[in-house]
Write a structure and sequence with these properties.
With about 650 residues, this protein is mainly alpha-helical. It has helices at about 40, 45-50, 70-75, 100-105, 130-140, 165-195, 200-210, 215, 220-225, 235-265, 275-300, 310-335, 335-340, 355-375, 385-400, 400-415, 420-430, 435-460, 465-490, 495-530, 535-565, 595-605, 615-640; strands spanning about 80, 85-90, 565-570, 590, 605-610.
C-alpha cells in the first residue's frame, strides 16, 4: 500500500543551535513513484542547490497542508540511518525547561495554535505549476499518458517543418487514416444519393439516408473501442487494422455489383432499396468505428505541445477524402462535365464510374492496412478499465458542468449558418446555375480549403483555439450574408464570367470560415480530452458538435418551404404541345412552393412564380439568431472554458 501523501516526517534538531540547517537528522522519505514528495522534486531545482534550507511557517496559515511533529512525538520512532546502513533508535533527550510542550500545557504544543520553532514545515503535495517539477514527473519510468495529466502542456508555436521528425511522420499517418475514412463517407452522404435519384423517389432516398446514421450514433459503442484491445497489436491498431481490411473487402465486392444493385434498388417503386442501404450502412459503421480509434490514437501519436496538429490532420484528411468522393467524383462521373472540359469527342459516360472507384479504393484500403501492420508499432498502453468502467467514466464526464456548457454551445452554435449551408447551392441551381459550373466552383475551392486548413491549424497554436473559433464564427455569419447577396444579384441573362468568379470567391470564403471553426474546435477537443478514454472523450465531443449541425437543418428546410409563397402559372392558350414535355400539361394554377409541386409545374410546361422566397426569410432569421446567441452567451462561455485548466475537464474517480 503506498504511503499517504501527508506522511512526511519533518526534521527535528535536538543538538544543533541552528536546527534549520541540520539535515543529518532528517528521517528518510517513503518513496512513491507516482506522487513524489516535495523534497524529492526540490532536488532537481536549481534554486535548491543554491539555497539548501527550508522556511518555517505558522500552523494556522495552512493547517490542512501540514504535518507537524515534535521531539516528544518522534523520540520513540525507528529510522534507517543512511550513514550506518542499519536501523537505529533515536536517543531520548531530556525536554528542556520552557519548551513548547510544557509552556502550552499540551502534550505536543499544539493546543494554543502556536508552533515550536524547532519544527520544520513540509508541504503535503508538491506544486505541479513549476516546469522543473513537471519535467521530473515526465522523466520517471512510471510516467505514462494513462495517468492523469499533471500540468496543462504548453502549446508550441511551431510551423509544420519545425516539428520533430517523429511528429511529422505521425501527422502524415493521421492524414492518411482520416483520408481513407472520408472516402466511403463522401460516397454515402453525397454522391450515391445523387446517382440514385434517376432510379427512385424521394421517399426511397429517405430510406437510403439511414445508411449515414452510424456516424451520428458512434458514441454508443465508443467505450467498447476504448476498453477492448489486443496487447499484441496495440490499443488502436487492434481496431483500425481489421476494420480497414473488412472495409476494403466490402468495397471491392460492392464495386463489382453496384451498377446492377442500383437498378434493382429502384425497381418496384424502390422496394429493393433496403438491401442496397444495408451495404452502405455496413461501410459507414466501419468508418465510424475507425474514427473512434483514430481520434484516440491522435492524442498519443503527437507530443503534448503539438497536439493541435491532430485537428489539422483530421481536417485535411477528412476534407480530402470526402471531397474526393463527393465533388471530384461527381464531376468526373458526369458525362457533360467530362465532355465540356476534357474531351473533344463526346461520350455517354464520365471519366470515372462508381464501380471502378469503389474497387480502386478497396484495394487501397488493403494495401494501407498491410503497411500499417508491418511498418508502424504502437506504444504499449496500460489501462485496466473494463467496458462498464468506461461507460461509467463517460457518464461522469457528461455530469461535468464544463462539459454541459460546451454541449449547449455546440447545440446552438450552428443555427446561424444553417440556411446558408443547406440551401444556398440549391437556390443557385434553381436560378439557373448549372451543376457543371457548381462542380467547377468546388474543384477550385478544394485546394484552397486544404491549404487554408493547414494554416488554420497553425493559427490554433498561435492563438487560443476557442478565440480562433470565435473569429471563425463571426466570419461565417458574414459569409451567410454575402451568400444571400450573391443569390439576389443572379444575372437574369444567365451566368457569365464575372458572376462565376463572384460565386467562386463567396464559396472559398464560406468554406474557409467553416474550416477555421472546425480546426479550432477540434484542437480544443484534443487538448481537453482525457487520454485514458481518449477515443470516447473525443467521440462524445465530436458527436455533440455534429448533432448541432444536423438537428437544426430539418427544421430550417421545413421552414424554408413554409415561408415560400409561389404559384404555378399554366402555359398560354397558344402553347404548342412540346414533344419533350415530361409530365401532364398544366391547365390550372396551383402552389408550387414545395419541390415536388415545382417539378410537376415545370414538367407540365408551366412557370413557377415565386412571390416570397423562404430562403431569404430563413437566412435572415438564422443570422439574427446567430448574432444574438453569439454575443449573448456563446462567446463569453467559450472564452471562459478556454481559460480553464485541464483538471477542470477530468471526471472524479
Amino acid at each position: 500500500m503506498p504511503t499517504p501523501l501527508g506522511d512526511t516526517i519533518p526534521s527535528i534538531s535536538l543538538h544543533s543551535q541552528n536546527p534549520l540547517h541540520n539535515n543529518s537528522q532528517r528521517l528518510p522519505l517513503h518513496h512513491d513513484p507516482q506522487f513524489p514528495h516535495a523534497q524529492e522534486l526540490d532536488d532537481f531545482s536549481p534554486s535548491s542547490q543554491r539555497h539548501n534550507r527550508r522556511s518555517s511557517i505558522s500552523l494556522e496559515d495552512t493547517p490542512e497542508d501540514t504535518h507537524l511533529l515534535t521531539a516528544a512525538d518522534s523520540e520513540e520512532d525507528d529510522e534507517d540511518d543512511p550513514s550506518m546502513g542499519t536501523k537505529s533508535r533515536r536517543p531520548r533527550s531530556k525536554e528542556p525547561k520552557g519548551s513548547s510542550s510544557s509552556a502550552t500545557g499540551g502534550e505536543n504544543g499544539h493546543l494554543n495554535g502556536s508552533m515550536n520553532h524547532n519544527v520544520e514545515y513540509r508541504r503535503k503535495n508538491a506544486s505541479l505549476e513549476s516546469p522543473v517539477v513537471t519535467a521530473n514527473l515526465m522523466a520517471r519510468e512510471s510516467f505514462t499518458l494513462d495517468d492523469h495529466v499533471p500540468k496543462t502542456p504548453t502549446i508550441n508555436n511551431h510551423g509544420f517543418f519545425e516539428l520533430p521528425m517523429q511528429d511529422r511522420r505521425n501527422f502524415g499517418l493521421l492524414v492518411l487514416l482520416y483520408f481513407l475514412q472520408g472516402v466511403p463517407m463522401g460516397l454515402a452522404t453525397g454522391s450515391v444519393p445523387f446517382l440514385l435519384k434517376p432510379y427512385m423517389s424521394y421517399s426511397a432516398l429517405g430510406v437510403f439516408s439511414l445508411a449515414s446514421y452510424p456516424y451520428s450514433l458512434k458514441l454508443l459503442w465508443s467505450p467498447i473501442v476504448d476498453a477492448v484491445w489486443s496487447p499484441k497489436l496495440g490499443r488502436r491498431k487492434s481496431w483500425i487494422m481489421p476494420i480497414q481490411m473488412l472495409s476494403g473487402i466490402g468495397m471491392i465486392w460492392l464495386g463489382a455489383r453496384v451498377k446492377e444493385m442500383m437498378v434493382t434498388a429502384g425497381a418496384d417503386g424502390g422496394a429493393g432499396i433496403w438491401g442496397f442501404t444495408g451495404w452502405w450502412f455496413f461501410l459507414v459503421f466501419m468508418c465510424a468505428t475507425q474514427d473512434i480509434a483514430v481520434d484516440g490514437w491522435a492524442l498519443t501519436l503527437l507530443t503534448p505541445g503539438n497536439i493541435s496538429y491532430a485537428s489539422t490532420a483530421q481536417t485535411v484528411g477528412l476534407t480530402a477524402g470526402q471531397f474526393m468522393s463527393y465533388t471530384v467524383f461527381l464531376a468526373f462521373n458526369s458525362p457533360d462535365f467530362a465532355n465540356k472540359w476534357f474531351r473533344q469527342t463526346p461520350l455517354e459516360e464520365g471519366v470515372m464510374t462508381l464501380g471502378g472507384y469503389l474497387t480502386f479504393w478497396g484495394w487501397a484500403y488493403i494495401i494501407v492496412t498491410l503497411g500499417l501492420a508491418g511498418l508502424k508499432r504502437e506504444e504499449k498502453t496500460r489501462n485496466e478499465d473494463g467496458i462498464w468502467d468506461v461507460y461509467k467514466v463517460m457518464w461522469g464526464v457528461l455530469k461535468l458542468k464544463n462539459i454541459q456548457t460546451i454541449i449547449i454551445i455546440h447545440l446552438i452554435a450552428k443555427i446561424g449558418f444553417q440556411a446558408n449551408d443547406a440551401v444556398t447551392n440549391l437556390k443557385l441551381i434553381d436560378k439557373g446555375f448549372s451543376q457543371e459550373d457548381l462542380a467547377l466552383t468546388v474543384l477550385i475551392d478544394f485546394p484552397f480549403e486544404i491549404g487554408l486548413g493547414y494554416y488554420a491549424g497553425k493559427w490554433s497554436t498561435t492563438y487560443t483555439p476557442m478565440r480562433l473559433w470565435c473569429w471563425g464564427f463571426v466570419g461565417r455569419l458574414i459569409a451567410a450574408v454575402i451568400a444571400q447577396i450573391t443569390v439576389v444579384i443572379f444575372p437574369a441573362k444567365g451566368v457569365d464570367t464575372w458572376y462565376l468568379l463572384v460565386v467562386i470567391a463567396e464559396h472559398i470564403f464560406s468554406t474557409f470560415t467553416s474550416t477555421v471553426m472546425f480546426v479550432a474546435v477540434s484542437a480544443f477537443h484534443a487538448r481537453i480530452a482525457d487520454p485514458v478514454i481518449g477515443g470516447t472523450y473525443m467521440t462524445l465531443l465530436a458527436t455533440v458538435s455534429n448533432l448541432g449541425g444536423t438537428f437544426p437543418r430539418f427544421f430550417v428546410l421545413k421552414l424554408v418551404d413554409a415561408f415560400t409563397v409561389a404559384s404555378c402559372i399554366p402555359p398560354s392558350a397558344s402553347y404548342v404541345l412540346d414533344s419533350k414535355l415530361r409530365g401532364p400539361l398544366v391547365t390550372e394554377p396551383f402552389s408550387c412552393a414545395l419541390s415536388a409541386e415545382k417539378d410537376r409545374c415545370i414538367q407540365g410546361g408551366g412557370h413557377c412564380d415565386i412571390t416570397t422566397d423562404g430562403y431569404y426569410v430563413m437566412n435572415v432569421v438564422c443570422v439574427i439568431i446567430g448574432v444574438v446567441t453569439f454575443w449573448g452567451y456563446i462567446k463569453p462561455a467559450a472564452l471562459r472554458l478556454q481559460a480553464l485548466p485541464l483538471r477542470a475537464w477530468r471526471a472524479s474517480e
